[in-house]
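Inputs:
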Amino acid sequence: MKLLLIEDDRQTAEHLTRGLKELGHSCDHLDNGVDGLAGALAGQHDAIILDRNLPGLDGLAVLTALRAQGSRTPVLLLSALSQVDDKVAGLRAGGDDYLAKPFSFQELIARLEAIVRRRGSENAAQTTLQVGSLTLDMLARIARRDGRRIELLNKEFQLLEYLMRHAGQVVTRTMLTDAIWDYSFNPGTNVIDVHVSRLRGKIDAPGEPGMISTIRGAGYRLDAV
Amino acid sequence: MPSDRRHLLHSAALRGALWITLIALLATGVALTVQYMQTTRLLEARTHALVDDEAASLLARYRADGVRGIAMAIRRQQDVPRVNEFFYLLATSNGEPLVGNLLEWPVDVEQPGYHSFTTKVASTGEGWRERRVEARAIVLPEGFRLLVGNLSDERQALRDQYLSSLVWSLLATGALGLALGFWYSRRGLAFVDAASATGESFLQGRLEERLPVSERGDEYDRLALTMNRAFEEVERLVGSLRAATEGLAHDLKTPLTRVRARLEVADLEQADAGRMHDVMADSRQDLETILQLIEDVLGLARVEATAVAHLAPVRLDVIVAEALELYDPVAAERDMELVSRIEPAQLPGSRSLLAQMVTNLIDNAIKYTPAGGGVTVALESIEGAIRLVIADNGPGIPEAQRAQALQRFTRLDPSRSQPGSGLGLSIVAAAARVHRASLKLDDNAPGLRVEILFSRL
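Outputs:
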């Protein structure tokens, strides 16, 4: 991915740039809002990582200006503030996702991939999702693997839908609590793990290879097998 | 002290006293003047009636007997002592006195009608005296002039009395008003002084400072009570911040020390790649713990900063049901019974905080209940309140430790065998406070019973 990082904290920026390059992405870095806005409008980036508190021009102002200029590049907002209101304000201004500091690098990567992918597929109003032999009929709310029907509870259905929409990408626990339960906090213990392992038990019949793998220190990934 | 005198001159008390005095002076002055004017008008009307009456009888004599008739009537009246002493003067057209008990025609009486003047009046036996007279001048058809009047000395006396009583009243009102006003304002100022001193002392770090509250229950007391509540809240927050900082420092130090030790040992050992991988994995685990802890601390701070004023109605029953749905598989996995009894309930609140409160409580209950145990969640509307009860049959918390359990960073399990920052119940307590709900920990015999009572506002 070709990324643009707008962040005034030198250490954070250095660390992120190095990590992103390590993973094979290219990453430009600008350290203030004015240059950041210019850079965002000039370059063709796959996604922009934008800090909310910037010298010169505040992150939200950069985002608002960017959207006003018609740019549709996905934007991931970073912020030391993690109140629900800040998040709402960020998303309302045209942000695609919001990540509160401190965050893990894995979380950042997972969310970046998710927003870039979402941009790619959002035009297609899909009624059926398919990953390998797994299909999800969103209208009839029926899941099948190799034609075998899988009975799912409401939350399990939403969980599977989310994993399938992000198939091949790492999905973190925080992304799941955010998207499925709409909780802005960590519900604790291993609640999400339990839900995922239940879902696993339903989609993988005995003898079938597992479709959902656990990525240590990061989250889960659903792959076609 | 000069500074004291200046203080007094610039004080709100003096200003207050001056205002009060000024108002009292104005009120007194207006009252006395109105009374004086009404009295003089009454006296004047009475005098005019008498004079008119007298003049009418003289004019009747004139119509019957001419000037001679009037002169005779005047002479006769003068000789008869009367209660109401009248004054008469019959004069020629150029003011030459003909008959009457006034010495001369007053210079400034030219026009017919009522006039008030001082003139020389013949008094019985002793010659002439200066008297104040209210008289009516009449011009007779033949050019003669007639003056009929009555003494108006009493009006003069009234006027003098009015002036002197005005002066005395104003003096008394002024003195009293100043004294009372100063005393009254002084009381307010004394309170303000006390409040300033207390606030100053509070600012210098004596957080136990409080304003004195009297028994009167007046506005000053209400203000003092409110300020004392604010002081208490600040003291509580500072105290809890201090405890939190100490707790946080302690809880951060432990994993950080572990990470450092691990890195140092690995460095000394010149660890190989495989060993290094383990060191990194363990360190990452410790760092995760630290980040989670920081996240919880921030979460708690957020809860505490939530203002109750911004809360919109939310469905608590829906929030509880969602949390139960989230934890159902967890309970099932631990072979635990999760029983619920939920009635519809709506209250002004923050969905996020309430969800955090409910999930924390259910999480705790499940975490501390042994496999095969049970957790009960009940939400019901009772008179004027909504009651949420979450009970388990785990080990419970001994009564002596229940208050401590709500403090930050308290983990009653000294081995710290369960994961968590120890902030769970503090977050619950803070969320309850934001919603003005009471939080009670009880014995569930066996187990812990947490009751949260939301009173309907």
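Remarks. The CA atoms of residues 316 and 345 of chain B lie 6 Å apart. Chain B has three domains: 29-158, 210-305, 309-455.
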